[in-house]
# Entry
Amino acid sequence: MLFRAKYYKTDLWKSLGKSERIILLVLATYSDKFGGKCFPSITKLREATTMKRNTICDNIKLMVVKGALSKIKKGRSSHYDLSVWKNHD
# Structure
């Protein structure tokens, strides 16, 4: 998913903390270009962000509550959906 510059001006973006923004941008790099779906492991997110596991998990939960992404549990793994940002196109 291409993360457009205009998203940075939205109230949703402004409501996110620094760690949430970093994680969201990393998730966007893993997402497909059509629907914004991705499924990187927490290990991959840790490598890309240098954040601790708990920090990543806590921030993902916050972003779900704020509506910045959706999380779908698939067995032991999670899939993330960033298509909410397409509403800002």
Strands lie at 37-38, 70-74, 77-81.
